[in-house]
Write the structure tokens for this entry.
Amino acid sequence: MNRRDFLKMMGATGVAGALGSASAPAFAATSTLYTGKVLMTIHAGGGWDHSSFADPRENPTINHWAADQADSPAQKAGTAGNLRFAPFAENEAFFNKYYQHMLVINGIDLQTNGHDAARRYRSTGSLTAGLPSLNELFAATVAPKAPMPFVRAGGYGQTVGVMPFTTLPDEALLRSLADPNSHVDGRKYYAESHMSILDRYRQERLASQLADPTNLPRWRQKLLELQRARAGTQEFAGLGSLLPETLDSQDLTGAAHRGVRDMHLFLLLASAGMTATGGFSIGGWDTHGNHDVGHTGRVRYLTRMVDYLWTKAAAMGIDDRLVVHITSDVGRTPRYNANNGKDHWSVGADVIMAKQAPWANRIVGMSGPAHERVRIDPNTLQADEQGIHLRPKHVHAALRDMLGIRDHALAKRYALDAETMPLFDASISTGIQV
């Protein structure tokens, strides 16, 4: 593979950007494989209805399943461990399987019902622009030397410059990076015995070019970028040994979904130490019309994707490293409109998951009978008229603490104006409140 093709491939996958440039000293000159916690954010694009998931109301005005229908009687909300779920889509099977992994955060006051502002707030902890997303901050603090610290396949896409994201690579290009000497039909471009000679020649040629005293500054910068890119590709050989002949394309029920392939590829990158965090998106939640049908499909798809994610991570032996943040932008109204849809609402909910975490199987935060925002005591997390509203900034402050990055210099530079709340304290819980 010649240098031009190599650089095209690096640019297509975003690796060159992730490795940085000579003008960005914050990024590593050489890469290091990452073995710590892996943060995955799954964004429900358009605004998910927490009343159809983990904060249901047995009120037919809010949920049609709570009303007596001609073809079915009214249903009751279910419980799994200390959690409560709507009898909707495939929630029962999902909650019964994963309640010991789940922290449900209810009654989040979004302070807006606009998509963009809510997406930014729930991704960064700030209602206004200027703070990095949790993914960007996490990547920059724990894995700045990884080949692809922050991988993105959807969700919040704005960065503030502390860590660029790498678009989830194309499978064919990634295989070529893992073994540049392999042709698509399985043949080799060069004999393996010749590869070491070629590699040595390339490095000697690059070193000679770098040593040329007549180099202009811009040309020298480009040579340094090439040197960093080549250093980063050494880790791809390890990824090549992990890549199966084909990526998964079906969920655990046998249904084909593109999202399965993306999640499988991300888990392979994480297993190989290539990345620390990923952003994903599942769209279609903005159900202004025919809400129940639309949300049934979306909730089923979400729970199946998350089920696949945890099952595959366990099979690969990395489930104990995984932290999953399921979030959205706006919430949905506690009533149906004239089109049987639900419009935007400024109260929402998040779910954080980790394998049998001590802080899981808990509910923190609460909303009122019709999903109104409720003030809670910041220490006990119980309703208190003199308390505060739980907001995304509090969720992010607690996540930073749980992930071990709260005291990092970058976290302090992008500080959150948020009171400390014990959202991950296993001894404190709001519990089921309806």
In short: The chain has a mean pLDDT of 89. The two ends are 63 Å apart (CA to CA). The chain is about 35% helix and 15% strand.
